[in-house]
Structures are given as structure tokens and as C-alpha cells.
Amino acid sequence: MDIIALAFQVYSFAIIIYILMSWLPGLQESKFGEILSKIVEPYLSIFRKIIPPIGMIDISPIIALLALNFIQIGLYRVLSYIL
């Protein structure tokens, strides 16, 4: 279970870093930004299709992080019944 928690935490941090990188010009175009984009963008794109930006503010990453947290909790509950 600790490995699963670590994986969710690392992915959450990757999303947060990716969001912060979007505020600084040129960082997402760096090699690290491109790698992070390939990891994070497929998950975020699901929420961006559903939740449009409000003016200049994109709240879909916040919803994506909340959903990731709910997925983690649900997975723990399922695994606790199995194990």
C-alpha cells in the first residue's frame, strides 16, 4: 500500500509542478517540461474537455487533483477488502 501512496503522491506533485511551470514563460518548452507534459497532460486533458476555463483561470487541474485523491481513497478501500 505504501508504494501505491507514493505513486499517487509523486503524480500529484508532477501535476502541481506542471501547473506552476505554466506560469513561467518557456519552462514548459524545456526538455523537463516536455517530459512532464507527456506524463501529466493525458490525465489533465480529460478534465479540460469537461471543464472550460473561467476567463483566464483554468480550474480543471484542481478538479483533476481532487479526482486523483478520490481515486486513491477508493482504491485503498477496494484493496482493504481484498487484502
The biggest beta sheet reads: none
How many independent structural domains?
1
Number of separate strands: 0
Could you give the distance between the termini? 10 Å
Overall mean pLDDT stands at 94
The rounded Rg comes to 15 Å
What structural category arises from helix and sheet content? mainly alpha
Overall form: globular
- The number of helical segments is 3
Order of helices and strands: HHH
> How big a fraction of the residues is strand?
under 5%
Low-confidence parts, pLDDT < 50 over ≥5 residues?
none
Please give the share of residues in helix.
over 70%
In words, what does this structure look like?
By secondary structure, the chain is mainly α. It has one domain (2-82). The protein contains three helices and no strands. The mean pLDDT is 94. The chain crosses the membrane at residues 6-24, 59-79.
Quick structural summary:
The protein has helices at residues 2-22, 31-50, 60-82.
Identify the notable features of this structure and list them briefly.
83 residues; mainly alpha; 77% helix; transmembrane helix; Membrane protein; CCB3/YggT; membrane
Helix-strand blueprint:
Blueprint: H1 2-22, H2 31-50, H3 60-82
Helix pairs in contact: 1-2, 1-3, 2-3
